[in-house]
Amino acid sequence: MRDADPVTSPAEPRPFIRKRDAHGTVTDRTADSAGPAADTDPRLGEQLSALSGQRLSQYSIAINGVRLSFWGEDIATPSREIFIEQDNIQITGPGQQPRLVPSHSDLIATALLSTLNHQLTQTLISDGRLQLTFDNDLGLEVAPHPQWEAWQISSADHLLIVCTPGGQLTIWYPDQDS
User: Fold this and answer.
1) What count of Cα atoms within 13 Å lies in the side-chain half-sphere of residue 120?
2) Residue 151 forms beta bridges with which residues?
3) Parallel, antiparallel, or unpaired for β 26-30 and 15-20?
């Protein structure tokens, strides 16, 4: 298990993660891609494609956000999580108009409960806006926030995609040895 905290060094403008391995060794890892260039990095599309097709295995709702967990279908597939920190989520149910609702609402809880074990069929990111579509026709959309991180995607192989304030992305791609 590693502990990772995104931080920015005053001497280095690029974001980095400080992590500790099982032996207690601390290393800093600079973001692979940040700002407007992150949106067009072809590796981002590869990571989003890898998330599509995975089944929603677990979810949790707290006062600070919604966590969606996708456990790997087999040993070669890393588990992934989406953590939504935005106060409101746009939800679209089958045959319904989109509605903006509080992320900790009964509507979100009920929709996610009915989506357990359903596949994520589409994951899109555009201008910091995260769009998720499941095979039961549930759609979730999270807008960026002007002051804080709206959402992040992480995985067991150390992928971390963060929607920073204003909607720009900062991305740490999986470790090369994972």
Assistant:
1) 27
2) 84, 163
3) antiparallel
Residues 6+ apart with CB under 8 A from 91: 98, 99, 101, 107, 108, 111, 138, 139, 140, 141
Q: Give the Cα separation of 149 and 101 in Å (integer).
A: 18
Q: What percent of the chain has pLDDT over 90?
A: 56
Per-residue pLDDT tens digits for 16-50: 666 667 777 777 767 777 777 677 788 888 889 88
Q: In what order do the strands lie in the sheet with 88-92?
A: 99-102, 88-92, 139-142, 129-134, 120-126
29-65 exposure pattern, b = at least 16 Cβ within 10 A, e = fewer: eebbbbeeebbebeebeebbebbeebbbbebebeeeb
Distance between CA atoms of residues 27 and 52, nearest Å: 31
Cα separations (Å) of 51 from 4, 157, 163, 165? 21, 13, 17, 23
Please state the pTM of the whole predicted model.
0.82
